[in-house]
Amino acid sequence: MTHARSERAALCDLLERLGPDAPTLCTGWTTYDLAAHLVLRERRPDAMGGIAIKPLAGYTASVQQRLKAGHPYPELVGLVRRPGGVYSLLPALDEAVNSLEFFVHHEDVRRAQPSWEPRELPEDFERQIWKRVSTGTRLMLRRAPVGVVLHRLGGGVALGGPRGGDRVEVTGRAGELLLFCFGRQDHARVELTGDPKAVARLREASLGM
């Protein structure tokens, strides 16, 4: 099983166990909202633009609400569990596009619940995550208010944020660094070192794609 399929299945198991009203780390979203988002992302390409493009966000939000209104929660989770659209036909594309997406959203649900602890990820998945983080650091940290040096435990360094001025060192495992760069700073198990004011600014910044 690919990591995308494994994370997808584990997320769906968790969604089923928690039900539709559990919190997530996605601001304002319950597990029901997250399930609708994931269905939209794979099965409604006409509405995907608003995920990243603000002028289109209103239409995307309306489609997401209609998905919730038109599908009971168990049905939406069932749709998430089965890769949709082109991903159902091309497993390699599913792995390339969805492995990190489903990892992050799996953690969005896990870490919004009490008494969570980080998972021990397979080493090959850690390497895969780090490869994506290290090549995408500039994009993910383009809104960082200070320079950032990512240090992966086990080896690897990547730079992001402004090239001049204050700089903050962020150290952790690849999965934790990914969550940090995706805007989950308060829930990523990383160590930050640098000027305290710079560290505070980075923690409060809106990061991610």
From TrEMBL:
The lineage of its organism: Bacteria, Bacillati, Actinomycetota, Actinomycetes, Streptosporangiales. NCBIfam families: maleylpyruvate isomerase family mycothiol-dependent enzyme (TIGR03083), TIGR03085 family metal-binding protein (TIGR03085). InterPro entries: CHP03085, DinB/YfiT-like, Maleyloyr_isom. This is TIGR03085 family protein.
